[in-house]
Amino acid sequence: MKKNTPYFFVFCLLIVLNGCSLVYKGTGNVMISYAEDQGVPYMLAADDIALTCSMAESFSPFLLSFSQVTTPPDQLAILFYLMAGNCTEFKAQNENLRYLRAIYAKNATAAQDAHIAQQRLLSLAAQRQFKGYQYLIKAFVEPGLKCPDFSNDREQLYWLLGLANGIQALLNDVASEGMAGVPLDIATKVSRGASCLDNKKWWGVPEAIQAAIWITTPGHIPADKNPQQILQHSMQIGLHQGIKMPYLLAAQAYLGQGDIKQVKKIIRDYTKFKQTAMSQRYKSLNQVANLQIQAISDRLWTEATGKRTPIGKIGFFWDDPIKQVDTVDVDEFL
């Protein structure tokens, strides 16, 4: 018996480990199923971005760790890394405002420090969003090669969010002076990938993505396309359906081109949004757009006056005739 004791212990250990593996696999399947069926709809409908950020940043490593024992939740990772990247981007925007205030006050040291902090955060945001884009490739196919065979609307939504990951990763990496090393050819791939989705069904976002890319990279505009008109049409679709992403994409595109007049017009028009059933279902996406648009407004105000957008003045600018401008309470806006 003593001679066979080591083999007996090895046999027992194998049984225990195999049992643990089965438990982990079962737990992973339950967690992933719950996240897909309940967690994601809850997150998309949430109206508190700070809590959504906490959920995305803390829950992602735990959920994705089940990739070791069960089918990898690649589609879920697309959304979680998009949100985690956005959360870091919000922090970078605050550092940008600190930078602009220092410039306004002619404090070079404070400006340099804020700029360094901003670039670090933008690089982290780009890394997270690029991971989300890589998970898009794992879950489906690399954009630009061919369109996936979508099984349902949820897969189309993940495809759309994955494309958003790609373009945001590129923009943030460029702003951080390439610290994250995001490939520049993502823009072309994302533009082609957007054509796989029905524009009207998905709130005007697919064509808004394409038009925004064409505006920021003029050499790639198709001869038969007018990106400005396409953006305007996509914004109208988004306005009608209550989804704000086309407005954000348009504002970012024109801001990148230095067309401040057009950016101001977009922000003014942005305040005309009304609640719809679609906007309630995807409230989290709208809240992200709200914060991004507010950040652009804050940037313009801070560059001109040294302080961010005053309370209740979204859609109003420092050089506007006061009596000719309708304003919106910022609490209602958010």
Secondary structure layout plus pairing:
Layout: H1 5-45, H2 49-64, H3 74-104, H4 108-139, H5 153-175, H6 186-194, H7 205-216, H8 227-241, H9 245-256, H10 260-270, H11 277-281, H12 283-305, H13 330-333
Helix pairs in contact: 2-3, 3-4, 3-5, 3-12, 4-5, 5-6, 6-7, 7-8, 7-9, 8-9, 9-10, 9-12
Helix content percent band:
over 70%
H and E string: HHHHHHHHHHHHH
Overall 3D form: globular
Question: What amount of the residues lies in strands?
Answer: under 5%
Structural classification: mainly alpha
Kindly report how far apart the N and C termini lie: 73 Å
Radius of gyration: 23 Å
Number of strands: 0
Q: Can you give the mean pLDDT?
A: 86
Uncertain runs: 7-17, 324-334
Number of helical runs?
13
For the sheet with most strands, the description reads:
none
Q: How would you portray this structure in words?
A:
- With 334 residues, this protein is mainly alpha-helical.
- It has a domain at 198-305 and 327-334.
- 70% of the residues lie in helices and 0% in strands.
- It has 13 helices and no strands.
- It has helices at 5-45, 49-64, 74-104, 108-139, 153-175, 186-194, 205-216, 227-241, 245-256, 260-270, 277-281, 283-305, 330-333.
- Helix 4 packs antiparallel against helix 5 and helix 9 (245-256) runs antiparallel to helix 10.
- The protein is globular.
- It starts with a helix and ends with a helix.
- The model is unreliable at 7-17 and 324-334 (pLDDT under 50).
List keywords for this structure.
334 residues; mainly alpha; 13 helices; globular; disordered C terminus
